[in-house]
Amino acid sequence: MLINDGIITPEELKCALPPEERYKKGPVAIIECLQDIPCDPCVSACPVKAIQMKEGITDKPVLDFEKCTGCGLCVPKCPGLAIFIVQKNIAPGKAAVSISYELLPIPVKDQMVTLLDRAGKEVGEGKVIRVINPPAYDKTAVVTVEVPEEKVMDVRAVRVKSGGQS
Amino acid sequence: MSRKTEVFVIGGGPAGLSAAIVAAELGAETLLVDDSAKLGGQLIKQTHRFFGSSNRDAGIRGISIASKLCKDVENLKGRLTVLKNTAAVGFYSNNEVGILSQNAYERVAYQRAIVCTGATENSLAFENNDLPGVYGAGGVQTLMNVHGIRPGHKILMVGSGNIGLIVSYQLIQAGVEVVGLVEGLPTIGGYLVHASKIRRLGVPIYTSHTILQAIGETHVEGATLSRVDERFQPVPNTEFEIKCDCICLAVGLTPLIDLFQQAHCRMVHIGELGGLVPLHDSGMKTTNPDVYVAGDASGIEEATTAILGGRIAGARAYESLHGKSEKADQIVAEAKEELKTLRSGSTGERIRWGRERVLKEVGAC
Predict the structure, then answer these.
(1) 3-state secondary structure B231-243
(2) Is residue B23 located within the same domain as residue B107?
(3) Using one digit for the tens of pLDDT, what is the confidence trace for A3-58?
(4) How far apart are CA B80 and CA B98, in angstroms?
(5) Of B229, B249, B269, at which residue does a domain stop?
(6) B191, A35: Cβ pair inside 8 Å?
(7) B274 is a domain residue
(8) Predicted ipTM?
(9) Nearest chain A Cα to B181, which residue?
(10) Which of B87, B126, B310, B363 is deepest in the core (most CB within 10 A)?
């Protein structure tokens, strides 16, 4: 359970997931923020106003999956690094996950990195598809990594073995 | 030598800086002292993005908030005097405070004092807790984020409040291996997003566990952990050892209140606020009408609420000298509204309860 060990269980995650059909329309944000904490930068980060907090700042964010374009602008703005962009079926058997990354070295495009799940367990290797790290992101890079389709809901961190930029 | 000022602010953290900025902006002659070389208090170690409302600094890193406040201070030169490396060491009768800098001891005659001394770190009793390598989380942050020194290579964190979780993450960023995080309660105390962040980087979180002893002769070489039952008693035969060269204690803070006691402010013990705090009204005035309080010294919370409390104290201290001011009223109204929002919801329950008790107690005296 999340509150005992920091690991969100599949059951706990359900409320944050879009309906299965939504994935067919392209990338979508998954906001893994399941506690009433006083925080709202994701709301103003969204250019299409798809994120709402019904009862004010201490409410949990609710994403309108139909409005969400998967642009990823909310990802680096989340102080909890709890927003991920998931895109299924980018190639047969392949999916993509975008993850906030604040460690050094920062991986570079086409580099192979170790894929980690919510418990920090290695679940394979993946190729970095894209790294976005403009000054506006203020040192929170967003790394998009290719993962096996069946691992797309598990991979939530990457480990850079060597290389990359410091 | 002696100095004179209308408003005297003690402490240059988020609360003190905000109080001084507001008092000076409104027009009070203001003096601020801080005992360190750099203004900003704990903010200068906070490399993570802040939570809170986008209207006030959320999503911005703590270090950037410190820079912002320092710039405001710079712009108020003339009305706001700042003395760094200067500690307030004692309150005297007739509204004087002794201040000690590297080469001089002086007295400050003030009309209103706003005391924002912050907090001290709690320790934890366990065998060998005086071994070199046992640190407080604030000390670890200072070494790492202010001086660029790694406190160790393999660190064990004790305490799962936001400080324990955030400092663990910062240690990972600094290239230190965090071998585990220990928490006596069955549940994680801080924000769960922070916990998930370190968990997915491989840090095991041991809830319902405690540290029994630090292992080592001359320095920390490991620790013995054990499960605890619901009454926090170690469960026999569940002990295990974990290798580390550092043990970091993030087991809470206690308001730093000596100066209030010297100033004859009435104190009250409120566990939810971290222990003894000076009684104060909603305008942050203590029971000594010339002394105000803000920040962690008024109850352990965090930097954004410290800023807001400081703004209220600065505005009310100004008004008490120069009479009612519409601008001051507006600052206070806005800050109170923001505080109410930040303290709403389930995570704000403890602090709401503690603050209500302060107001009730102050109303009764």
Answers:
(1) CCCECCCCCEEEE
(2) yes
(3) 999 999 999 999 999 999 999 999 999 999 999 999 999 999 999 999 999 888 88
(4) 19
(5) B249
(6) yes
(7) yes
(8) 0.96
(9) A5
(10) B310
Is the domain of B264 the same as that of B179? Answer: no
Domain count, chain B: 2
Domain encompassing residue B108: 2-120+253-364
Q: Give contacts of B344 with chain A, Cβ < 8 Å.
A: 38, 56-58
A27-56: burial string, b at 16+ Cβ within 10 Å, e else: bbbbbbbbbbbbbbbbbbbbeeebbebeee
B67 touches chain A (CB under 8 A): no
pLDDT averaged per 10 residues in sequence order, chain B, 365 residues: 94 98 98 97 95 85 96 96 98 96 95 98 97 97 96 97 97 97 97 98 98 98 98 97 98 97 97 97 97 98 96 98 97 96 88 94 85
Q: By C-alpha distance, which of B216, B113, B108 is closest to B156?
A: B216
Is the CB of residue A135 less than 8 Å away from at least one CB of chain B? Answer: no
Q: Which of A4, A33, A82 sits opposite B186 (nearest CB)?
A: A4
Q: Pick from B209, B359, B175: which is nearest to B284 by CA?
A: B359
Both B142 and B94 in one domain: the answer is no
Give the mutation candidate from B46, B47, B49, B308 for the A interface (greatest A CB count, under 10 A). Answer: B49
Cα nearest neighbour of B182 on chain A: A5
Domain boundary among B220, B249, B278: B249
d(CA B56, CA B289): 30
Indicate which of A37, A44, A151 best probes the interface with B, i.e. most B CBs within 10 Å of its own CB: A37
Domain CATH code at residue B163: 3.50.50.60
Decide if B129 is inside a domain: no
